[in-house]
Q: What sequence folds into this?
């Protein structure tokens, strides 16, 4: 009864396209190409953003570990060595250096 009604529209799905529809695009036509293109752009943008975020995080964590007296103390420098380095960098003057040195060497 309805066999003639569906024969013409379904004929394109079986004829020469490997059962995938017109042009082998599973019935999406050219519109599916734009959808896939947009998804590909979004995918690569996400990959690049993740890589940039990872690199920035690694650089920041490397900078944090190299700066400050806490990092120097963790690297094995004694308190007196840190005091000498601060004096050499000009962070403290000679009076403050002598005062702190006396406080460190008193027992």
A:
């Amino acid at each position: 009864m309805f066999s003639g009604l569906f024969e013409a529209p379904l004929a394109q799905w079986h004829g020469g396209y490997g059962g995938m529809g017109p042009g082998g695009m599973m019935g999406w036509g050219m519109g599916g190409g734009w959808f896939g293109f947009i998804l590909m752009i979004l995918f690569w943008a996400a990959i690049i953003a993740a890589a940039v975020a990872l690199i920035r995080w690694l650089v920041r964590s490397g900078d944090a570990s190299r700066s400050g007296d806490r990092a120097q103390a963790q690297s094995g420098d004694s308190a007196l060595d840190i005091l000498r380095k601060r004096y050499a960098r000009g962070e403290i003057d000679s009076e403050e250096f002598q005062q702190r040195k006396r406080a460190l060497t008193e027992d």
Q: What stands out?
A: Helices lie at 3-14, 31-66, 69-74, 79-89, 94-105. Residues 74-107 form one domain. The mean pLDDT is 74. The two ends are 108 Å apart (CA to CA).
